[in-house]
Design brief:
Structural class: alpha/beta
Low-confidence stretches: 344-351
Keywords: Glycosyltransferase, Transferase
Pfam families: Glyco_trans_1_4
Number of strands: 12
Radius of gyration: 21 Å
Protein name: Beta-1,4-mannosyltransferase
Distance between the termini: 30 Å
GO molecular function, one term: glycosyltransferase activity
EC number: 2.4.1.251
C-alpha cells in the first residue's frame, strides 16, 4: 500500500448490522478492513447525524424501498435528506456496482434519487473489468476494479457432502429474471431417470411460489425447498450437487456462482464477458456456459464437463479473490476518498 495509514478513516456502510440472512460478503467486509479504516453499519440516525468520512453504498435502491407505500415514502424522504447531508458536508460516496440497474424497477421518485446517488458518487468499485459506469455517473468520478471475494473462509468449518452423480442444483432467491422456470422446463425434457434437480430458495411472491411448485409437481426427479436456506443447509445442498445451474437471463456479477465455486462445485451460467473471465480464472471444467434460453443439451454438457473433474479433490483457482487483497483494496479506496474530500467530516465514533 502506498497511502498514509496514520489518519483513521470512518466508513458508513449502507447495510445494517448483519443478521443470519446477510450476504457473507457484506458481513465480513467491516471485520476484514485494517485497523485504521473503521466501518460502521447503517442506521438512519448515524447516516443523518453521525460522524463518518466516507459513505459506502452497495444497492442504493434498498435504502428507498419498503413493504408499503407509506413506508416507502418515508424512506424516500429519508434518502433525500441523506443526499442533502452528504452534499452539505461534502462527504464522498463510494459505490460498489453489483448491478448496473435494479433487478426490479422502481417508481419515478426512486429513479430520481438513484440518479442523485450516481451524481454524488466519487469512486465506483467494479466487481469485473467489463462493468461500465452508468451514464448518470459524475464525469469527475473514478473507477477501480476489486473482485468479489470468495466464500471459502466463511464455509471452512461447514460439513462437506459427497457429490451425487447426476444431481443438479439451483439455489438463491427465486425471482422471475433468474430463470428457474426455464430450468425446470429444460430439465423436464432430459430423458434420464438417474438425474435429479433440487431448487433451494425463497420465491419473491406467492404467485411465483405456486407456479414453481405446479411446474415441479409433474416431475418426480425434482425436489423443492422453497424457503431461506441457512449456511449449513446451503453447504450440504451445494456439496451434494454435481453441477450448480444458474439459469439467469444475464450474468453480470454473481455471488451465487462464486459461492458454488468456493465449495468446489462447477457452475452452468449464461455466456458473456463475465463468464468468459470466470472460466479463464478458475480453470478448465469449472464454468460451462449457455446462450439464450437454457436447453436440455446445456444441462447434459455441464454434467459431462463436471464428470471430468475429480470432485472432492479438485479445486477451482480463486486466489485473486482472497480476503486480504480485497480488503486492502477497499481500504485504499476509502483512504483516497477521505484524503481528497474538500472538507472531510472528522472521523469518530458514530452516534
Amino acid at each position: 500500500m502506498t497511502t498514509d495509514q496514520t489518519v483513521p478513516v470512518t466508513v458508513l456502510e449502507s447495510f445494517p448490522a448483519p443478521r443470519r440472512t446477510t450476504n457473507p460478503y457484506l458481513a465480513r467486509l467491516p471485520a476484514e478492513l485494517p485497523p485504521d479504516v473503521r466501518a460502521v453499519t447503517f442506521s438512519w440516525r448515524t447516516a443523518l447525524v453521525g460522524r463518518y468520512d466516507v459513505f459506502h453504498v452497495h444497492w442504493p435502491e434498498k435504502l428507498m424501498r419498503a413493504s408499503t407505500r407509506p413506508r416507502t415514502l418515508v424512506k424516500q424522504l429519508a434518502a433525500a435528506a441523506l443526499l442533502a447531508r452528504l452534499a452539505l458536508t461534502r462527504t464522498p460516496v463510494v459505490r460498489t456496482l453489483h448491478n448496473t440497474d435494479p433487478h426490479e424497477p422502481g417508481g419515478r421518485v426512486e429513479r430520481l434519487l438513484l440518479r442523485a446517488v450516481d451524481r454524488r458518487t466519487a469512486t465506483w468499485i467494479m466487481l469485473t473489468p467489463d462493468t461500465v459506469r452508468p451514464a448518470t455517473a459524475s464525469p469527475g468520478s473514478t473507477a477501480v476494479t476489486i473482485p468479489h471475494p470468495h466464500y471459502r473462509d466463511w464455509y471452512a468449518t461447514a460439513a462437506r457432502t459427497a457429490p451425487r452423480p447426476g444431481r443438479l442444483l439451483y439455489f438463491g432467491l427465486v425471482r422471475p429474471y433468474k430463470g428457474v422456470e426455464d430450468l425446470l422446463a429444460a430439465f423436464a425434457d432430459v430423458d434420464d431417470d438417474e438425474l435429479t434437480l433440487h431448487v433451494v430458495g425463497s420465491p419473491e411472491s406467492p404467485a411465483l411460489r405456486d407456479a414453481i411448485a405446479a411446474q415441479a409437481a409433474t416431475d418426480a426427479r425434482v425436489g423443492l425447498r422453497l424457503e431461506y436456506a441457512d449456511d449449513d443447509v446451503l453447504a450440504a445442498e451445494v456439496g451434494a450437487a454435481q453441477v450448480v445451474v444458474l439459469p439467469y437471463r444475464r450474468l453480470q456479477n454473481s455471488g451465487a456462482a462464486l459461492l458454488a465455486l468456493s465449495l468446489d462445485r462447477p457452475v452452468l451460467v449464461p455466456a458473456g464477458a463475465t463468464a468468459t473471465r470466470l472460466a479463464a480464472e478458475t480453470g478448465p471444467g469449472w464454468v460451462t456456459t449457455f446462450d439464450g434460453t437454457l436447453t436440455p443439451a446445456d444441462l447434459t454438457r455441464a454434467l459431462e464437463a463436471a464428470a471430468a473433474l475429480d470432485l472432492g479433490t479438485a479445486r477451482p483457482d480463486l486466489s485473486t479473490r482472497d480476503w486480504p487483497g480485497v480488503a486492502a483494496a477497499h481500504a485504499d479506496v476509502f483512504r483516497a476518498c477521505a484524503r481528497r474530500a474538500p472538507h472531510p467530516t472528522p472521523a469518530g465514533a458514530a452516534r
